[in-house]
Amino acid sequence: KELPELTFDIYGSGGEDSLLREIIANHQAEDYIQLKGHAELSQIYSQYEVYLTASTSEGFGLTLMEAIGSGLPLIGFDVPYGNQTFIEDGQNGYLIPSSSDHVEDQI
């Protein structure tokens, strides 16, 4: 509602697919949140303006490395794992506090 031009695509799949679909439906967000399933991401990155990682525990994110290699700015939580390896806050993206409820401010 605050950023009507924003779309959010989620690639991959896992055990939370049903829950995600339910949350999206309950919030009537089908028009701007899409579950895309598996794809060859190296061919997908060029279609986007920013890469957002919501992980707070991924040690080394291959997708982070691929996204930065594609030239996308990155947004991720400031946790002592993979994000700090790839994101130079204010340079190629933003590190946000892991307790932040304001991811949209960085976007």
From TrEMBL:
Pathway: Protein modification; protein glycosylation. It is a peripheral membrane protein. One of its GO terms (cellular component) is plasma membrane. Residues 3-101 form the Glycosyl transferase family domain. It holds the Pfam family Glycos_transf_1. Keywords: Cell membrane, Cytoplasm, Glycosyltransferase, Membrane, Nucleotide-binding, Transferase. It is found in: Cell membrane. Belongs to the glycosyltransferase group 1 family. Glycosyltransferase 4 subfamily. This is Glycosyltransferase. InterPro entries: Glyco_trans_1. It catalyses: L-seryl-[protein] + UDP-N-acetyl-alpha-D-glucosamine = 3-O-[N-acetyl-alpha-D-glucosaminyl]-L-seryl-[protein] + UDP + H(+). Gene3D superfamilies: Glycogen Phosphorylase B. GO terms for molecular function: glycosyltransferase activity; nucleotide binding. The keyword Lipid biosynthesis does not apply. Its main location: membrane.
